[in-house]
Automatic annotation (TrEMBL), chain A:
Its main location: endoplasmic reticulum. Belongs to the PIGU family. This is GPI transamidase subunit PIG-U. The chain crosses the membrane at residues 60-82, 94-120, 162-185, 197-218, 224-246, 253-272, 292-312, 324-346. One of its GO terms (biological process) is attachment of GPI anchor to protein. It is found in: Endoplasmic reticulum membrane. The keyword Transit peptide does not apply. GO terms for cellular component: GPI-anchor transamidase complex.
UniProtKB/TrEMBL annotation, chain B:
This is GPI transamidase component PIG-T. The lineage of its organism: Eukaryota, Viridiplantae, Streptophyta, Embryophyta, Tracheophyta. The chain crosses the membrane at residues 555-576, 629-646. One of its GO terms (biological process) is attachment of GPI anchor to protein. It holds the Pfam family Gpi16. GO terms for cellular component: GPI-anchor transamidase complex. The keyword Signal applies. Residues 1-28 form the signal peptide. Keywords: Membrane, Signal, Transmembrane, Transmembrane helix. It comes from the Eukaryota.
Length: 347, 649
């Protein structure tokens, strides 16, 4: 069980360093826009420290660590991936990506923000601001080109890190798959592994209650429509990938955060660990999110949901008195969705 | 023109030839018909707890298919078609209502070993086919039997309902399939097609005694169909019906002069409300047996008299035609049978066998070495445990010498449905209250774990208990699964059944031998008793409650979920659509409009922006969107009205 503590700690450290990188990039970009005044004015907490503290002290992270489930390890892989991408270390990012996708299917959509991170660099304000600035004060921009690729033309997308990344992804995934096939040789091979792991996630077969949106629905949906609804619900995640990417392409780290939030809400078997991950990453953007509205409701919504869910579980399963799980999960999903939208309103 | 004498001679010859052919054909069919046999027997036995056991046994046999062709004289055609179509080599189907009371009615004799069946339907079959085809054939077999017996045996067709034990049930090479339905109710609907397989139905012979109200008022009734088919012997079909009844006699409550209570004196008329008025005419032999158990025989011997039909303890109402004594392996007489040949009786002189008790008597039947029972532990709908207990009945001490290495073997076979997810690694054994390591007690174990919605979990275990053990308990933990709304039975809150487990004791043999029987006396019932059979007992059926979803609102759930997703989808896309500048512009507009309404003011305040009262742009850009809105509303209204008219016309 010490393994999980160590894993959580490593994840927190990596979040911290990612936050540092992000903050430096933000300061740099704001400086290049001659907005140093606003830098000093706005809330300037050290995003990395805040985020790592939030991650470590989040009660849901602590619960998953104590319960010895594999969520901390999955979270660690995602954080490794983000860290590697922010610091432009393609092998590390590739390792994190392959392991995270192997452990659960959904981090696969994080390839987009990772690619964007590697190509563009960490979060920056939208390109249009820079273009405006560049148009209005040409001379200042031109002279200021010693600060790396993130300076000159934020619209520039360097392909080299991407190719590097893809190569490493290929290498790592071949390694992992060959290890799997050796282990699973007697049992059925890779085909069966994919069927049982990814197939299980995609076609919701086990109907035990969890804190997600989907299980009660799939317990009561009619068989005739089951495949239709499976496709619809999985498409919900996939469909939002592109529009969000288009909209947030200048802020890939934030994009990754939004993806984790959506995945935590809509995946077929969510758990407290997924919510722990995205709440931790929320801390990375504390500066931008300082002006978020409705924080009161959301915060207490979260607390209420976390307190009520064991109570309702007890009532329904152990004492067999009520089926209130329905309302619980509605509450949770609604809170998650409003949170996401408010967060997005800030962009 | 032929002379008339030759014509007459030709006619005569052809007639002779015809006669010869007819005779040959007749003899051939007579041979074939003679090879099909039908025997009927009835065995009556008093039970220690003031009840009576009646066991009907009908055997039809057909010669191998090549000899008889497809015409059957006595043998039911449906069964022979079944055997040929599905290549069955052995099959047993039993319908049971009630539980066999192993403590009172015995667990060691061939009657309880062969005829004590688990409640509901139990079906097992051995096929003579390559292993890959057996599952498909099983499915077809269940459907055919379901139609033949008016029962829902077709629920056994899906792979979640049957299992393929290798050695826990019967030693086989993988061509045995076993399935049980504990909740199936048995009624006359199932008895009638079963009786239709008999040549005389229930119109004549021993089957005419089956008075339905008395059969279904009993404590236990089990009808069984057992098939054995081979190339050399043909098909042998045994149909048995075992009923435990409470005889409704007045004398049952009488107290004897010595103070004890007499056992009820009953006769066939008390049990079945009618007397036996003759045999089935096509049956080869028709007999009624009265069995006097070892316990009673011992008491009679103790009383000093001879065990005949009329002695100090009881008297049989009619003198038997023959009396058979069973000898156990120590050459001591243990039980005796009195036989009545129904041939000697007819409707003028009906047979009414009965027993009248003279002295109060208490005896007990021989029991299996351990009394096996099963129960559930734990509360709540998330997890629980199955516990199986073995209580020693003291039999072992008589039969095995008490050396230190002595051990009694028990084979446990259990099938658990997939929604009770058993964790086989959590098996714990407690002997006399002390926890023992698994390797000390379990000799051999074979587990087929359950797969969700595909396979039930099968467990076959060979246990070795020390002879001096009094009580052993095995526990297994399980998690309860959650089913789709379609998979719940109509009364979902009753719970789900785990079928009976079978416990057999391979070292104990329950066969009986009757050495006095002369070679001409062939009784299928006694042949069955003579067969080697291990002592078996079935445990109880367990009822497991599972969490139920709310059945009354599937539509509500679907609507709720879709609403939530629509909210998420819509608001996310909406948020994506905006741009920062637009937002600023939107706020500025809110600043303009604050003169017009309270809500924009509130929105602006909520957003933490300063309300700017000094903006004074012209109203024309504000009124333009308003007129546009008005136009849109009017347009939608017109469309709605038109649609309404179109749909109504």
């Amino acid at each position: 069980s010490l393994v999980f503590v160590a894993v959580d700690f490593i994840a927190a450290m990596l979040i911290r360093s990612t936050g540092r990188t992000l903050q430096m990039a933000r300061n740099r970009s704001l400086k290049s826009l001659d907005l140093t005044k606003s830098v000093n004015n706005s809330v300037n907490v050290s995003a990395g420290d805040t985020a790592s503290l939030i991650y470590l002290w989040n009660p849901w992270t602590i619960i998953t660590c104590v319960g010895s489930c594999t969520s901390p390890i999955e979270n660690l892989m995602v954080v490794i991936m983000l860290h590697g991408a922010c610091s432009r270390l393609a092998p590390l990012a590739a390792f994190g990506y392959v392991m995270a996708t192997h452990l659960s299917l959904y981090p696969a959509i994080l390839i987009l923000p990772v690619a964007l991170l590697l190509g563009y660099g960490p979060d920056t304000p939208p390109t249009k601001v820079f273009l405006q600035k560049g148009l209005s004060a040409n001379k200042i921009d031109m002279s200021d080109n010693g600060k790396g690729t993130s300076q000159k033309g934020f619209g520039q997308f360097s392909w080299k890190p991407i190719l590097h990344f893809i190569l490493w992804v290929f290498i790592w995934s071949c390694y992992v798959l060959s290890l799997n096939s050796i282990i699973l040789n007697k049992v059925g091979g890779l085909q069966e592994m994919f069927e049982k792991t990814y197939g299980f996630i995609l076609t919701v077969k086990d109907l035990s209650p969890n804190i997600g949106v989907l299980w009660y629905f799939f317990a009561e949906v009619f068989d005739f429509f089951r495949s239709f609804f499976l496709i619809v619900f999985n498409m919900n995640i996939i469909f939002m990938v592109l529009p969000l990417a288009i909209r947030l392409k200048h802020r890939p780290c934030f994009l990754a955060f939004v993806y984790t939030a959506i995945v935590a809400m809509l995946k077929s078997y969510p758990s407290a660990g997924d919510s722990a991950l995205y709440l931790g990453l929320l801390g990375l953007f504390a500066n931008e999110l300082a002006e978020m509205q409705f924080t009161f409701f959301l915060f207490f919504g979260y607390i209420g949901v976390s307190l009520l869910s064991p109570v309702m579980h007890n009532l329904w399963i152990w004492r067999v008195s009520l089926s209130l799980y329905l309302y619980l999960y509605l509450y949770l999903s609604l809170s998650l969705s409003t949170h996401t939208c408010c967060v997005l309103l800030l962009t | 023109m032929m002379p008339p004498s030759t014509a007459r001679r030709l006619c005569f010859l052809s007639l002779l030839l015809l006669l010869l052919l007819l005779a040959a054909a007749a003899s051939a069919t007579a041979d074939a018909a003679a090879a099909e046999e039908f025997t009927e027997e009835l065995l009556l036995r008093p039970l220690p707890d003031r009840k009576a056991l009646a066991h009907f046994h009908f055997r039809s046999s057909a010669p191998p298919a090549s000899a008889a062709g497809r015409h059957h004289h006595l043998f039911p055609k449906a069964i022979s078609q079944l055997v040929q179509k599905f290549h069955i080599s052995e099959l047993e189907l039993s319908f049971t209502q009630g539980r066999w009371n192993y403590e009172q009615w015995g667990g060691y004799d061939p009657m309880s070993t062969n005829n004590a069946k688990p409640p509901g339907v139990e079906l097992w079959a051995i096929f003579d086919l390559p292993l890959a085809e057996i599952d498909a054939t099983w499915k077809n077999l269940t459907h055919t039997l379901s139609g033949l017996f008016c029962a829902s045996i077709n629920f056994l067709e899906s792979s979640t309902a049957f299992s393929a034990p290798r050695w826990g049930f019967k030693l086989n090479e993988g061509n045995l399939r076993y399935g049980a339905l504990p909740r199936e109710a048995v009624c006359t609907e199932n008895l009638t097609p079963w009786l239709k397989l008999l040549p005389c139905r229930d119109k004549a012979g021993i089957a005419s005694l089956l008075y339905r109200p008395s059969v279904y008022k009993g404590y236990y009734h089990s009808q069984k169909l057992k098939l054995k088919s081979s190339q050399s012997l043909g098909i042998i079909l045994d149909q048995t019906l075992t009923v435990v009844l409470q005889p409704n006699t007045v004398s049952g409550k009488q107290l004897h002069s010595t103070g004890g209570q007499l056992q009820p004196s009953w006769s066939m008329e008390h049990l079945f409300s009618k007397k036996l008025s003759g045999k089935c005419l096509v049956s080869k032999s028709s007999r009624v047996f009265v069995e006097i158990e070892k316990g009673i025989v011992d008491n009679v011997d103790k009383a000093g008299s001879d065990v005949s039909s009329n002695n100090d303890l009881f008297v049989l109402s009619t003198a038997p035609d023959r009396s058979l004594k069973e000898l156990d392996n120590l050459e001591v007489q243990s039980s005796s049978l009195y036989e009545y040949d129904v041939n000697n009786y007819n409707s003028d002189k009906p047979l009414n066998v009965g027993i009248t008790w003279k002295l109060p008597l208490i005896w007990s039947c021989t029991r299996a070495p351990y009394h096996a029972s099963r129960f559930l532990m734990g509360s709540g709908n998330e997890r629980g445990s199955i516990a199986m207990s073995f209580l020693s009945t003291g039999l072992d001490k008589q039969l095995v010498d008490s050396s230190n290495d002595c051990s009694i073997k028990a084979v446990v076979f259990q099938v658990v449905p997939w929604y009770v997810k058993v964790y086989y690694h959590s098996l714990e054994v407690f002997i006399d209250g002390n926890s023992k390591a698994i390797s000390e007690v379990v000799d051999k174990i074979h587990v087929t774990p359950s797969e969700d919605k595909l396979l039930p979990g099968t467990m076959e275990m060979l246990l070795k208990f020390p002879c001096s053990m009094q009580l052993a308990t095995l526990t297994l933990d399980f998690d309860k699964g959650f089913l789709h709304i379609d998979e719940y039975p109509p009364d979902a809150n009753q719970g789900f059944d785990i079928p009976s487990a079978l416990v057999s004791f391979p070292e104990f043999n329950s066969s009986r031998s009757y050495p006095e029987a002369d070679p001409l006396f062939v009784s299928p019932l006694l042949e069955n008793f003579k067969e080697d059979g291990v002592v078996k007992s079935y445990t109880e059926v367990l009822l497991v409650p599972l969490t139920t979803p709310d059945f009354s609102m599937p539509y509500n759930v679907i609507t709720f979920t879709c609403t939530v997703l629509a909210l998420y989808f819509g608001s996310l896309l909406n948020a994506l659509r905006r741009r920062i500048g637009e937002e600023e512009r939107g706020l500025k507009k809110a600043g303009i409009l604050n003169k017009r309404g309270l809500i924009p003011l509130l929105i602006a305040k909520l957003r933490g922006q300063k309300v700017d009262p000094s903006e004074s742009e012209s109203t024309s850009p504000a009124s333009l969107p308003r007129s546009k809105l008005l136009l849109k509303v009017v347009f939608v209204a017109v469309v709605a009205i038109v649609f309404h008219y179109l749909s109504n016309s």
